[in-house]
Specification:
Elements lengths: L6 H4 L3 H8 L30 H4 L20 H7 L5 H14 L5 H7 L5 H13 L6 H7 L5 H16 L4 H10 L6 H10 L24 H22 L2 H14 L4 H13 L3 H14 L4 H13 L3 H13 L4 H13 L3 H14 L4 H15 L1
Helix pairs in contact: 4-5, 5-7, 6-7, 7-8, 7-9, 8-9, 9-10, 9-11, 9-13, 12-13, 13-14, 14-15, 14-16, 15-16, 16-17, 16-18, 17-18, 18-19, 19-20
């Protein structure tokens, strides 16, 4: 798993959010390709638009995703194995990624997944088929346009738009898109409005070579994490374009692929909070805890969020839990400050003393401890 940057910093400034999206990449894995794998990052403080040329491709409408994984066939043979996994989450992730890559060899397997026992697999398979221009996915896409998470609805609209671009069942698809307009968010309204115009398919992808891969097979975790990083990179691109909703959409796809990486939830929550959606941000941070109950960073994210909006009573318990689970000293300091803000001075002093035991040369900790002792002596 990637090593997260301190959660508190992500909640303070947009610069920290951008830094989180440019997190230190993992070591290279055996799977090499133009999309999945380590990303080159620009120098600190400098943003370079690495995807400007890709964004301007004639087959990409301005509302559509960056096709970063399209034609990246390196992981396809492994995804074909994972789509037959006993784990439904792995089958759903594999179906989703195959639709993003577009290799025609995947079509028969995706069509079989339309009969999968798990609805999540059927949904991702149907969207994948439509995104690859296969009409067998149209009914699935139409069915989820008003019922699923926004990032899933977005890709369903993309799939229907690509079918329209090939003039496939225009009356049905147009009716489905226009009928789903009511109650959508601003981003989805814009997406559906654009989708009705039809979108061309990206360039055709070659079939897989006959020979088996010679490199060692990557683990499923390497595949999910590598693909999740690609969506984080796309999220960063949208972030610098000023489109936070699209940045969230990409990050939600990343969470779907790698739900154990807490930092992505934190970035989503920061973006939601910055747009005035505090309740939604809290739900996102609670999702991180539900998915990662033993990770101190998940509890730290919720606690730091409440602390930063001065809801100290709500911040106390998640910060305490984070410290109990071994959160770093920055979160431990936040917990001590939170106790002080709540008037629990002796409890706060005890935490500063504990911090000083582990970091005896830290002058800031010593200063906070001494100031609190002086207050208590008055």
């Amino acid at each position: 798993m990637r090593v997260p940057t301190p959660v508190l910093l992500l909640l303070v400034t947009a610069l920290a959010v951008s830094a989180a999206m440019a997190a230190t990449p993992r070591p290279p894995d055996p799977m090499q390709g133009p999309g999945i794998g380590p990303m080159q990052q620009p120098p600190p403080g400098e943003h370079v638009d690495k995807y400007g040329d890709l964004a301007e491709k004639p087959y990409r409408p301005e509302w559509a995703p960056l096709p970063l994984l399209w034609a990246d066939t390196a992981p396809v043979v492994y995804l074909h194995e994972l789509i037959d996994s006993e784990n439904a989450d792995e089958r759903a992730r594999a179906a989703f990624l195959l639709g993003q890559i577009g290799c025609p060899d995947s079509l028969p397997l995706l069509a079989e997944c339309l009969n999968d026992a798990e609805r999540s697999v059927r949904v991702q398979a149907g969207i994948a088929l439509a995104c690859m221009g296969d009409a067998r996915g149209k009914h699935t896409c139409a069915a989820v346009l008003s019922t699923h998470a926004e990032w899933i609805r977005y890709f369903a609209a993309l799939g229907l738009s690509r079918l329209l671009g090939q003039d496939i069942d225009r009356p049905f698809i147009t009716r489905a898109l226009k009928g789903a307009m009511s109650g959508q968010s601003a981003m989805m309204t814009q997406t559906i409005d654009g989708a009705v115009k039809g979108a061309p398919l990206p360039p055709p992808v070659e079939n897989l070579p006959d020979q088996a891969p010679t490199a060692p097979a990557p683990s499923p975790e390497q595949i999910w994490e590598g693909a999740a990083d690609v969506f984080v990179a796309e999220s960063d691109w949208w972030f610098h374009k000023g489109d936070y909703d699209q940045a969230i959409r990409c990050s939600e796809a990343s969470i779907f692929l790698d739900p154990d990486y807490v930092e992505t939830y934190t970035v989503v929550a920061w973006l939601e909070w910055s747009m005035g959606r505090n309740a939604q941000a809290v739900r996102t941070l609670n999702r991180a805890i539900a998915a990662n109950p033993d990770d101190p960073e998940s509890h730290a994210g919720l606690g730091a969020h409440y602390f930063n909006i001065k809801e100290y009573a709500l911040a106390e318990e998640p910060l305490k839990k984070a410290v109990e689970l071994g959160a770093d000293h920055l979160i431990h300091r936040t917990y001590a400050h939170c106790l002080e803000a709540l008037g629990k001075l002796r409890e706060s002093l005890a935490e500063w003393e504990r911090l000083l035991e582990t970091r005896p040369s830290d002058g800031a900790i010593r200063l906070n401890r001494d100031q609190l002792k002086e207050r208590l002596s008055e």
